[in-house]
Design goal:
The complex is a heterotrimer of chains A (about 300), B (about 270) and C (about 350).
Chain A: H1 13-38, E1 40-42, E2 48-50, H2 54-61, H3 63-93, H4 99-109, H5 116-126, H6 133-140, H7 151-179, H8 183-191, H9 196-224, H10 228-234, H11 245-255, H12 259-288
Antiparallel strand pairs in A: 1-2
Helix pairs in contact in A: 1-12, 3-7, 3-9, 5-10, 7-9, 7-10, 9-12, 11-12
Chain B: H1 6-31, H2 35-40, H3 52-59, H4 61-94, H5 100-109, H6 119-128, H7 135-158, H8 164-171, H9 176-187, H10 189-205, H11 208-212, H12 221-224, E1 229-230, E2 233-234, H13 236-263
Helix pairs in contact in B: 1-13, 3-4, 3-13, 4-7, 4-10, 7-10, 10-13
Chain C: E1 4-11, E2 22-31, E3 36-40, H1 47-55, E4 62-67, E5 70-71, H2 77-80, E6 82-85, H3 97-107, H4 112-125, H5 141-153, E7 160-164, H6 172-189, E8 193-197, H7 200-206, E9 209-214, E10 217-222, H8 224-229, H9 234-239, E11 246-253, E12 256-259, E13 262-264, E14 275-281, E15 287-289, E16 296-306, E17 310-317, E18 320-327, E19 338-342, E20 349-352, E21 355-356
Parallel strand pairs in C: 3-8, 3-9, 6-7, 7-8
Antiparallel strand pairs in C: 1-2, 1-4, 4-5, 9-10, 11-12, 11-14, 12-13, 14-20, 15-19, 16-17, 16-19, 17-18, 20-21
Helix pairs in contact in C: 3-4, 3-5
């Protein structure tokens, strides 16, 4: 990690200009549109009434929203709690070279490449006790299992599906991070008499910190916005036990809201994620470095 | 060098591979069955093995054009994302400039909203510039979430390279572009490989925006796969076959970048 | 502190047939206890391989490594108790300087107060006492290399310290400081130090004895003076010195040494039979002479380079180029002039098949 102070160079702006153009063009204009809608009551394309923060207040008071939000937060943290350690373990276990490394790399990445609606569909069948491998196996072992009838089972199934689907993301990032550690560090640790745990704690984990920050933020964001997979698998049920925030938003937008409240909700949604990510990011930065000169790693 | 705990590690790896492959195996299993057989009962291996599903997909232009369309815009997007992200990541990693930390974090915020939010604005925008139903439109739209990701990943790997290497190269007489291409990029191979794969992956599976902005010419495979519900119910078999086929391009991509990801950082002279 | 004896070879493949199959051609070498040695050579010559064989990171395909007479060929670096400093600083980012230095000792279960004392001694020696509680990752490259070195020195019974081009990432103006520090440490601790480099200045200032290597071979082991005065191989003559030794191909007959279309009287007291030789003479020992002087050749000046403290004069005749290093004060001829340059003297060496014969 380059931790000596970085030289100041305002001309560096030219290097980031292409990125800014691409992203700003894709983001700023739409965002402005959304903000615009969120403070209006759009009764029809011609009739719009400025309502200020009315939608925002109404949303904050909505009890159903609180429920969905709580379920979502629980879900995202459960996801992080399982996928992060599992992904790191997987990254450590994956072979570093040879034909085995290529084979394992491909196998591990397969689940990431399936369109999300297909993932939901696969697990939908997979979990059925009549025609699905997992459902039938569980039933065969004498376990009562129904993801359509039992809320806990539904939760666990959705969680398991997410773990199956997304752990490889953490693992791939971690794996690439590990491969970037020069041999000399392992050699020096060996010369110093370090144990394997020491090597993990003092060499591997610190050097993986950069990629792990990305993994945590990505998984948090994506799990917080998750829609397709649980929707296809359980439809949000039984009842609303697996209705997470995104589905809630869609239900409301399609069913009851119109553009105004939907836009307001989108903004709140965005701000929640932003706040959580900001907290997570800064906390992770501080845990790793205690330098006063902050900088991103 | 770390002598791996042979038993434990391999056992865990094997267990995970089984876990990873089971649902896929089930999908492959389904893809070789007929719908009737799938719904009739539980069989570990198709009773009546059939290639029909694959045949349907590979001969029906509506299906295979979906693959081709997806491949086109995903490839476009990956190339643009990485090309644009490399200099930006270098700037963030090596230099300090006005607003750098804020811009860096702002980039990631573009991934913090469900793309659904941008649906209507994008639709209006691309209709007005006449780029509806083109590959480039989808490729550009996907830049929204892929470019920040690429910048973040690349920056992470670049920060792991000591700045002294850049300076040594200057002393050795390299011009900046030459240094960047011949020395620097090979050092961050793992990062480039991972970033490219993720850009490919996220663009490949993105359904909502791609479907909204296309109708016929550039319709992606993911959209085609949503129309497998017919009067007689869900067409599981064809869906399963399509699902299997969607994995193939990604598997190929990762095969190609495996060396980038596995090689990592190698510095030094004899 | 240990005496290291090497009697080995290292091949890329199982059944080496020819020289190019070897990374290190069979060699026999001894490094005395407490000596400072340098392994010098261009990229790819095998010096890092040799270093890694000594440290235990690589096992030689044939032969043995002995420390104080004991065969350690199968031992790990830890078991050999060596310390190695790499091309780039290798430190534990999450630890402070003090914790970095203490780490090897903690792993040996040394009592805490002894560790503290030892760390203090080494930090003092490296002039890092004031930085002990700083996070190691925030320091500059040269400080980090010192920490790398310190982790090796902190063990009281370290057998040898091996350096693999450790100044590569150090700022040029800090290199000399570190070099001086290394010499100081050597003087104080009397450790066996082995230093790999491709930079002759580093090698010659650091080491008592230099091993010059090329393409898997150790061509000469000697002090800086030996390598300079009597290179035993044309490669050494060429590699050491700036510019390197001049080589004039020619043949010896009764009349004298014929080279560059002229004849020079053979030197007295040398036992040289007739035949083809290469005459080797360093630019430092080539001097301007009067016309037809003994031991001198007529040449035409092709280039005069003023390097500030001295001048490099290049002269040609037929297909032979000769370089002379002259002091800045002499009356310098101009390009195109004819000069006579004395090449024969007591510092002149003769080579046959690249090896020195006289």
């Amino acid at each position: 990690m380059s931790t000596t102070t970085k030289p100041v160079n305002q001309k560096a702006w030219f290097l980031i200009l292409p990125v800014l153009i691409c992203v700003a063009f894709s983001a700023i204009v739409p965002l402005m549109v959304v903000v615009n809608y969120s403070v209006q009551d759009i009764i029809s394309p011609e009739r719009r009434v400025f309502v200020g923060t009315e939608w925002f207040a109404a949303i904050m008071r909505d009890e159903e929203l609180h429920g969905a939000l709580l379920r979502q937060i629980t879900y995202s943290f459960a996801v992080l709690a399982v996928e992060l350690p599992l992904g790191i373990l997987l990254a450590l276990a994956m072979p570093a070279q040879g034909w085995k490394s290529s084979a394992v790399l491909v196998i591990v990445s397969l689940s990431l490449l399936i369109p999300w609606n297909v993932v939901g569909t696969i697990w939908q069948i997979f979990g059925r006790t009549d025609i699905g491998l997992m459902g039938a196996a569980l039933q065969g072992m004498g376990i009562e299992y129904s993801y359509t009838g039992n809320a806990l089972h539904a939760w666990l199934t959705v969680l398991l599906m997410d773990v199956w689907h997304w752990t490889p993301l953490v693992a791939l990032l971690g794996y690439a991070g590990l491969r970037s550690i020069p041999d000399a560090y392992y050699q020096a640790a060996s010369i110093d008499g370090a144990s394997k745990l020491d090597v993990f704690r003092y060499v591997q984990l610190p050097k993986m910190r950069g990629v792990l920050v990305i993994a945590v933020l990505l998984r948090f964001m994506d799990s917080f916005m998750i829609y397709t997979e649980p929707f296809v698998l359980t439809g949000g049920g039984p009842g609303n036990s697996t209705t997470f925030l995104s589905q809630f938003l869609t239900q409301k937008a399609v069913g009851q809201f119109d553009l105004g409240p939907a836009a307001a909700f989108s903004l709140i949604y965005f701000l929640i994620i932003l706040l959580m990510c900001f907290i997570l990011y800064n906390w992770m930065q501080r845990v790793g470095t205690q330098s006063k000169e902050a900088g991103h790693e | 060098m770390n002598k791996p705990k042979f038993q434990k590690r391999s056992l865990f790896m094997l267990a995970y591979i089984v876990f990873a492959l089971l649902p896929i195996y089930w999908m492959v299993n389904m893809s070789f069955k007929t719908n009737n057989e799938i719904l009739a009962g539980f069989t570990l291996f198709p009773d009546h093995f059939t290639w029909d599903n694959y045949h349907t997909i590979l001969t029906d232009p509506a299906w295979y054009s979906g693959y081709i369309n997806s491949l086109i815009y995903v490839a476009m997007n990956t190339v643009i994302s990485i090309t644009v992200a490399l200099p930006a990541a270098y700037a963030f990693s090596r230099y300090s400039f006005l607003g750098d930390k804020h811009v860096f974090f702002w980039l990631l915020t573009n991934r913090m909203t469900p793309p659904a939010v941008f649906l209507l604005p994008f639709f209006q925008l691309y209709t007005s510039v006449g780029l509806m139903d083109t590959h480039i439109a989808v490729a550009l739209v996907h830049l929204l979430f892929n470019v920040p990701l690429a910048v973040w990943i690349l920056e992470g790997f670049m920060s792991g390279i000591p700045r002294e290497i850049d300076e040594t190269a200057y002393i050795d007489g390299y011009s900046f572009p030459r240094f960047f291409i011949r020395i620097y990029i090979p050092l961050i191979k793992a990062g480039v490989g991972v970033a490219a794969f993720f850009c490919f992956m996220f663009s490949w599976v993105e359904l909502l925006l791609a479907r909204t902005l296309t109708s016929v010419n550039a319709k992606p495979i993911a959209a085609t796969m949503t129309r497998t519900v017919s009067a007689s119910g869900m067409d599981w078999a064809t869906l399963a076959a399509a699902g299997v086929l969607t994995i193939v391009p990604g598997a190929i991509v990762i095969w190609f970048v495996r060396n980038y990801i596995a090689k990592g950082f190698a510095m030094g002279r004899v | 502190m240990a005496r290291i004896e090497l009697d080995l070879a290292h091949a890329y493949r199982a059944n080496p047939q020819q020289d190019s199959d070897y990374a290190l051609l069979p060699l026999k070498m001894t490094f005395d206890d407490g000596g400072a040695y340098a392994l010098l050579g261009p990229s790819g010559c095998g010096k890092t391989t040799l270093l890694n064989i000594m440290s235990g990171l690589v096992t030689p395909s044939q032969g043995s490594v002995r420390f104080d007479g004991k065969d350690v060929t199968g031992f790990t670096p830890q078991q050999r108790n060596i310390a190695q400093v790499f091309q780039f600083p290798v430190i534990y980012d999450t630890m402070t300087v003090a914790e970095n230095l203490a780490f090897p000792l903690r792993n040996r279960k040394m009592p805490a107060d002894q560790i503290k004392q030892r760390v203090g001694v080494i930090a003092e020696m490296l002039e890092m006492s004031g930085q002990l509680n700083q996070r190691a990752s925030n320091l500059a490259a040269d400080a980090k290399q010192k920490i790398s070195l310190g982790r090796g020195l902190v063990r009281p019974d370290v057998s040898a310290v091996l350096f693999d081009e450790p100044l590569t990432v150090i700022d040029p103006h800090l290199k000399w400081q570190l070099r001086r520090k290394l010499k100081q440490i050597h003087h104080e601790l009397k450790l066996t130090l082995i230093y790999v480099t491709h930079d002759q200045v580093e090698a010659l200032t650091f080491a008592d004895q230099v091993v010059v290597m090329t393409r898997g071979r150790a061509v000469q082991v000697g002090s800086a003076a030996d390598l300079f005065e009597r290179p035993s191989h044309t490669f050494v003559g060429h590699f050491i010195g700036s510019p390197g030794m001049n080589f004039l191909p020619g043949s010896m007959t009764a009349a004298g040494f014929h080279t560059a279309g002229a004849t020079v009287a053979a030197p007295a007291g040398r036992d040289l039979s007739d035949g083809d030789y290469k005459l080797g003479v360093r630019p430092e020992y080539v001097s301007l002479a009067d016309a037809n002087a003994e031991g001198a050749l007529p040449m035409e000046v092709s280039q005069v380079q003023d390097v500030g403290t001295h001048v490099i004069l290049s002269a040609r005749r037929e297909s032979v180029t000769l370089k002379a290093r002259l002091s800045a004060n002499t009356h310098l001829p101009a390009v195109g002039d004819s000069v006579w340059l004395r090449v024969m003297g007591e510092h002149t060496c003769f080579y046959k098949n690249e090896e020195i014969v006289a």
